[in-house]
Amino acid sequence: MEYFLELFLGGLTRGSIYALIALGYTMVYGIIKLINFAHGEIYMIGAFTALIISGVLAQFGLPGWSILLMTLPIAVIYSSAYGFTIEKIAYRPLRGAPRLSPLISAIGMSIFLQNYVLLAQTADFLPFPALLPELAFMEGFSGIMNSSELFIVLTAAAVMAGLTAYIKYTRMGKAMRATSQNQRMAMLVGVNVDNVISMTFVIGSALAAVGGVLIASHVGQINFYIGFIAGIKAFTAAVLGGIGSVPGAMLGGLVLGWTESFATGYVSSDYEDVFAFALLVLILIFRPSGILGKEEGHKV
Amino acid sequence: MQDLKKSLLTAAWFMFLTFPIMVIRVNTVEDTIEWRWHNLALVGISAFILSYVWRYFMVRRERGGGKPQTDAAPPTPAWVSIVIEDKRILYPLLAAFTGFVASFPFLFSMYQTNIMISAMVFVMLGLGLNIVVGLAGLLDLGFVAFYAVGAYSYALLNEHFGLGFWVVLPLSAILGTFVGVLLGFPVLRLRGDYLAIVTLGFGEIIRLVLENWGAFTHGPSGIANIPRPGFLWIEFGLKDGITFMYYVMIALVLFTILVVTRLKYSRIGRAWLALREDEIACQAMGIDKTKTKLMAFALGATWASMAGVVFAAKTSFVNPASFTFMESAIILSIVVLGGMGSTLGVICGAMILILLPEHLRAFAEYRMIIFGATMVLFMVFRPQGLIRDRRRKHTLKKPDDTPVSGDAGKVVDAHG
Amino acid sequence: MLKLVDVHAGYGAIPVLRDVNIEVNEGEIITLIGANGAGKTTTLMAICGLVRARSGDILLEGESICGLPTNRIVEMGVCQVPEGRLIFPDLTVTENLDMGAFMRRDRKGIHEDAEYVFNLFPILADRRHQAGGTLSGGEQQMLAISRAIMARPRLLLLDEPSLGLAPLVIRQIFDIIVKINRESGTTIFLVEQNANQALKIANRGYVMENGVITVTDAADRLLANEDVKKAYLGI
Amino acid sequence: MIKKLTSAVAVAAGIGLIGIGVAQADEIVFGVPGAHTGDLASYGLPTINAAKLVADKYNAKGGVLGRMIKVVPQDDQCKPELAVNAAMKLVSEEATVAMGHICSGATKAALPVYGDSKIVVMSPSATNPPLTTSGDYPNFFRTIARDDAQGQLAASFTIEKLGAKKIAVIHDKGDYGKGFAEFAKAAVDGSGAATSVLFEGVTPGAVDYSAVVQKVKHSGADAVIFGGYHPEASKIVMAMRKKNLKIPFVSDDGVKDPTFIKVAGVFAEGVFATGPQDSSGNPLYAVALAEHKKAFNAEPGAFFFNAYSAALALMNAIEKAGSTDYDKIVKALKTEYVETPVGKIKFDSIGDAEGVGFDVYMVANGVFVQAE
Questions:
Q1: What is the extent of the structural domain holding B131?
Q2: Which tens digits make up the pLDDT trace of D173-184?
Q3: Which of A206, B102, C191, D176 has the fewest CB atoms found within 10 Å of its own CB?
């Protein structure tokens, strides 16, 4: 039973990270029906920016928590700025192009960003400082869950609650919902769709940066390639939950995290990813729009 | 003046954007921080200049954008039409080209011949994927799975049963078709992007199985000593083997082109096209959607599988590292950059994407970043690819120049 | 109030509108009639900036709105009830109305207007927490019109409000259109295939054929016009 | 169709004409194929440095057999198909000998190409046993010990010195890591003194490894043997220690890298790793180190000394053979001893270096020291 709990909590941590990244995919997809392949790279850039900023700050001999408080917002700002810029360069000119074009553009952007960081920084794995504080009261539970995992789960939960409220109650949130349901009509009631799309990229990127900083601090190392694998998994999570649906992304992330964790624990980690993808295929075969997704209306 | 202001702003923005990553290099292994201020200036200046270039092309694009998509290709340059119309120039040129292709292995080194074979393998893959993506409009991100099936079927059949290249080639075609149908059947009722992610998943699953099922596939250490094809009873040495493979590849590529071209203009080809344009209307016209899609999927898999056999024979070694998502992305780029649906486009795409990196070994570090940037720029400025697909048109009557308002609505929807 | 001067517009290279001249005065109900595919919807989209006019000009109270983004035009008081209604399917009726008032910041006024439309269409009040997508066609049309009212437009553009509705509902909708025009002085530009009904409530009418305005006259005279009768009134 | 063909002529001709290899007869072309870009570049690049240093040394003395040595690196990214291309490129540039390929898979793919052209290949890092034991590649030599020796050593060390009874064997599913892990597992199960309670592969680059760590814990193992490279190793060690799993962690040569200690920090303390026998007492070792520091102003990277030794062995063999003839070079490699940074070596009948072995190291106070 303890083993089950350990795997459950491990899956919860991993799933929370997937969910944080998956939100970016799902929001962008909801609004412009684009698989933003470069989103994983945004997550990586968030982590790298945090590494650089915290490295510079550490020179001043500041305490760990103050470094975290300064690093996280800067990483979030930079990731958002990258998300914003990418949309302007690689996706905005392609509005109205066939569906495949922005997707290819996104794959190209993903390759570009990976190599940009590779060339400007390094190919090697770099140690990432443990920015998350160790909580004394978690000491006794460290066998099943440690402080950084607790931080990840709590932050993810808080961020998701915040995002849900934002979408539900704010003016921009309403504009986002309206735009995702019918872009033309949203324009006709006066929504500035360009702004909404930019904002979607900004928010999605910010969430990815939070995920990037948390996970990097938890596992203690990053390189230019971390975004690719995390991105594919998060995207799988988004589709699993029903792409375009915000609660779906959260649920999809957790389901995927648990699947991988239990598959490793009870079967074999050799086939961890096989289980993840097989689950995806199965769910899509029986529910072609994902767990919480809605069947797309067939337009004639 | 307006432009100058915009460009200055762009430059400032990019200087801000790239500041941490371009300027500061923190090496947490060595505990060093390196400030590279010259990069900041570099970014600023390049962003400033590039913003002008970008704007120039954007304006050109806007102007060109109004042109109808359905109409013929852009005007052919004068020299091309001269060459084509004057048979005195054309025939010798064609003869020279045929001669060049035929004598390539004798003109160039084994290395050159070998990478030419690589490029032709990718031509085959590209043409195969072109059926799926370019003609039928199904986005397949796991195409490399079928390529792996072909490569491993040759490696394993050869290892266990000693079957030769010529026996396995048709066998693998059948196997590829079979696997294509097997994987295609459950996923084809998914639409668009869902299909994309599921095919990506299948691609990964196949690679992971190859990697982990050591008892069957030898896992990551792979299978070595796969023989090159012989001719009847003749076994070749390395150099002659490569030369022979070159001609085998030429024949296979020609065969592929022939079949794909026939398919494209056949009944099923028109059904694919209809499917790509409008799935629902297609069903309404009585086209069996599942069967048509499955055909495309299976045929694509057939070619990929055959290309896999050639790959295994050429490299003489297979392991799962050759069948990653990156390969799928490259094949897809070949199709898209070359020009979706266009056979010649795919050939040019493969030649450029495979041969250029080989010849640019000196720029190895910058190869991938250029590759990524090119993909983006192509999509933005030349989405139809290098060579636009031109289909034979059946002009029954002059089309009415008044579109119905329903059509109009659809155009805007596409924008939306 | 609204003036289209020699407007040419189309999609890509396909021209749709040619030399369109339309004038709508403050407080009027103007109708644009024509066959399916004549370019009526395109005209509305050009006004709202969803289709860029290739040449000519569109003036709103003497000011050119050509090339402005749609949200700016909406902000200036032009509101459209598009063809096919385009309800936000996952938003509730109340949320749909809220979206109509997206450009407005006066909470109190918005609340009052919501009460006003619920009075106008009591059925919507009953369904206020229901998702827009679950309403019937007629209810959706009512919601679409209510949503437009919520914007307090000065100029209301209606695209085929009668399409696919039962005659009884059509009559109700047309009554409301007249009511909006009378009570709040909203100028109305109505695009209809149902020429008979439209001309009955309009002050003036335009007839469009193949992207060109062929006839324009006072509504009652158009109703009496032999050609129009033959072509559009089915008499 | 005709129009299409003509433009194809232009494209194909244009591409075909770019870059035609040139070779000069009076040079000894010393090929250095390996991963010089991509994620494994850090293992390949130090070998180029080693080759250049050795070449400079000989060239300063007038070359080998009076001919200058020209170092020609070829990138293969550790991918088999690119390795074949790299090999063919070297063949067409008439390489005399080649030092490389870095990864075993790439080496296997490329060897037949060299074999056909009678070129001796010596790898500083390809440890997969069949490269020599299969007998398929008579032209292959290496200056590093085989995986089976390494796996055997890791297993016996864990059982005998650490007294482990139940051992969890983990690997990174890679060519190198899984090979090592399989040999270690076989050695553990064959020892009679201990059993392997777990044999699992982790996915490189996965978000975290907590599930695998829990599984190790659950298996009741009293030691872990890991086959793979340092990024995964440090992630696993850190996760283990954070989860209060303090059992010994024994790994391989891919982990015996200073970067591992830097990345894993305090968690690296007490980790065991096998690595090439310590030859730092060897005078040539100091020479090579000094040369590298002087020329590149940095510490040498992975496999540098093996590569340096391989380059010396190859050049020495050509000199002793008195010609660039394949058979004579092979004979010289197998008969003539040569002083190198990894010791005084010659090669046995299958191509493995005699006298090159592994030792077990342990991290203590932030450095690898020989374990007792």
A1: 113-381
A2: 888 888 899 999
A3: B102
